[in-house]
Structure formats: C-alpha cells, structure tokens
Specification:
The protein has about 325 residues and is mostly helical. It is built from 14 helices and two strands; from the N terminus they run αββααααααααααααα. It is globular.
Amino acid sequence: MAPLTYHDAVSGALERLRGVGFEHGPRFVNHAPMAAEALACMGYADAVPGWVDGNLRTHTYHDPPGARWTIDPADPEDWRSALGRFDRVADWTALFARELALDPWREVLARWWPRLLPGMSGVLTHGVIRTAHAVRAVSRAQPGADDRLLRDELAQGLGYWAARYAAHTRISPGDAYPAPGEEAEPGGSATALLDGLVAEYSGVYASVPQHHPVPLIHSITGPAAVRLVVEHLPAAQHHVSYRVARDVSASMLGWFSVTRPAGTTAAPSGAPDLPEVFATAAAIGDEHAIKLAEVAVRHQALAPDPRHAAAAHAANQGLARFRR
C-alpha cells in the first residue's frame, strides 16, 4: 500500500471526525483534528489513522448543541450577542460554512479575524489554534482539489472560537484594527515579534516548575497559531494580532501562578535533537505533546533558538509521567 499523503491523511481524519463533538469531559477540548493535522504535517501521515482510532476509543465526546437561530453577519448587534455562547456553536459553524461556500476562505478569514481576535483567550486559545491548523490545511490544498472537508474544518474552528469567545483585553469585538499610524511597532515585523514571543515562552515553559504540564503549553501554541495565520491576513492586521497574542501569553503566567524566571534567554541543556523530540511526542501520543513538538520544529526553521527544543522536551517528559 502506498504511503498516505498529507492531504489524504488530513482529509481521512476529518471524514472520520465528522459529527464528533467539540469537547469531552468537564469542558476538555477536542484536539483530534489539530493533532492529526500536525502529525501529517510532520511526515507522520501513515500514523494518523491509528492515532485517530486511539483517540476515538479513549475519549467520549459530547454531542454539540443543536442549531438554534441563524446569525446575521450584517447585523453587529446580532452576531456580537452570540459571541461566547457555546449553545450557539452550531449557529456559528453554519454561518462560517455559508460564508466559506460563497467567498474565498482568505476573505472570510480577514473579515472575521478582527472580530474574534479580542476573544483569543477563550478555552486557553484553542479556538484560534484549531482555526490555524485548518488554515494551514486549506492553504495546502492543490488547485482544483476537493477541499470541502478542509473548509468545513475551518468553519468548525472559527465557529468554536466564536462560541467560546472570552475577552480579557480592552479591545472590543470588531475593533481589532490598528488606529491610523499604529500599523507598525518598533522592534521589527509582526512575524519576527511573534517568533520572538514563541521562543520567549518556550524558555519560560522549559524553566519554571509547574503543577501540571498542560496549561502553560498554550502560552506557546497560542502565539504560534497566530504566527501561522498572519501570513494569510492583510498586513494591517498583523501587529494588532501580535499585541493580543503577547497579552494573552502574559496573562497565562498569572492565571497559572507561574513566576517568570530571570534570564530565560538561555535554554536548559540536555534536550535531544528536534526530530527525536517529535518522534518521542508521537510515541507518547498525547495531543499536547504532538502539537507543541510540531511548533518547536516549525519555529526552529523560522527562527532557530534552543528554547524550542527545550520546551517540547520538557513537555514530553512531563506528559509521559502524567500518563503513566
């Protein structure tokens, strides 16, 4: 049998995950579409079906709430009132499915990104992370290929983000646009600033004691998701995206009572090479380990820094102990 391609692995996973709920247990997030895409992106496409098997066998997902009312995207009062309403998640998903059927996906993304960005912190940034994995998948579709499953997954990611929207910034929904003259920020491009943010919080994660290895991972994977998407957004949206991601990651240190250590510019020594780190994450099978290790590999290619491997290695160690 021929090895699976990235597209075959991702589409196959999404087909099997159709109808699977957004959450399980006491509001734990469904990571299956994200982790499956990350495995395929890293060249582990043949491992995706087995990983999905295991995930569906060990997780009991809640049925998503049913559709209630149509959300009117042209009526700000209507769509704003539905933000953060998980009971409206099916309405949100239907809205994005309609828009993605009518307009190019980049136009839909650019239209809704500023509206959803202030609510990035909801469910530990999983809305933006799921959206980012879907964006990467749909952006890699071959011209003329059937990308309906990929666009459906983008609708799911955006819909979940909207339904679990939780703002902690002073920016209001729809206001996440730079003021005139504020498009740029000293210190470099938004992509470079986001790369630095991912490296910074990788160093923090690898350096601080934690009660549980999972929560602070999102201070890395959240801005990494924003970095993955900004290259598909209008330039005017880049810097405000960095600023919101920066504020959310900083807030996580407070949420989880972690004190930023002094001198996190150098990573702890002893992390294996990144291919080995990712192979270990895949063998552990934990979705957080897989996603963080993929971020580490991706950002090492973008802006090399030993803190990437250190964070993923620390997560592998913590999650392996936690799963025993």
